[in-house]
Amino acid sequence: MAVLLTPDKRIIVQGITGSVGSAQARWALECGTKVVAGTSPGKGGQTVEGLPVYNTVKEAVDRHQANASVIFVPAAFAPAAAHEALDAGLKLVVIITENIPVKDTLAIQAHAAETGADVVGPNCPGLLTPGVGKMGIIPHNITRKGRVGLVSRSGTLAFEACADLTAAGFGQSTVIGIGGDPVPSMPFVKALQLFEADPETDYAVLVGEIGGSAEEEAAEYIRQMHKPVFAYITGRSAPPGKKMGHAGAIIRGSAGTAQGKIAALEAAGVRVADTPAGVPQLIKEYAAQTAAS
Fold first, then answer.
1. Would you call 111 a catalytic residue per the annotation?
2. Is it the case that residue 243 has pLDDT exceeding 70?
3. Alpha helices in the chain (DSSP H)
């Protein structure tokens, strides 16, 4: 079944006439994603990668029964694109765009709560379900179908973790890139709840980083999970007060350090690796111990 990006999703690409939107639409189609249309205001009637382009999301929904959207729209227009998708009734919206102001993200989150939709992002690599497809920029050739659910704040670390898992023989049920902004629309806890409920996920992997309290909040939830969780936290050598790549990756005082997050996760029973490549070994060790007991 996987989570979020399931076989029933009929996806539109908002911003499909842009260079990034068109290229990502092509790669999504190549890995079997059920992309049904694209939108770009004022460019309706065109065809991109064999897909019809509409001026509005509502037109795409009415013509193709779309129920999900991935947004590749510039930051100045992305909030309006997200609200348009939610107003059109879409229940899954993935926002790849970065540099969206926090106040606009909070307004999108409030709108999604009103409509009962799931929003992933902004500033994220999106979703990928091996065998179903992808919504975003995660390379499908580093993944394989399997039973590990992966959630990450970092796009590139998600890619590295996927490649390491795949090389070690562990496929993925779903990969969720929640993004590195201070207030991601999908927190770790929600992603872990989805993996906990998914019958096709045996293990969960959390890839975190410095800044904020999302990993500590995840640790509190993990205490009640029945599935084993593994983790990697980056930023162990980050200097206090210096932003490290992501808007949310900044240590203030003693809060948000990698050491504090690792301690919170380990106290909740999570096995934490020193590197992304160490995660598959921890899973192997756990599986061997479980089989022997």
1. no
2. no
3. 19-30, 57-64, 78-87, 102-115, 155-167, 188-197, 214-222, 258-267, 278-292
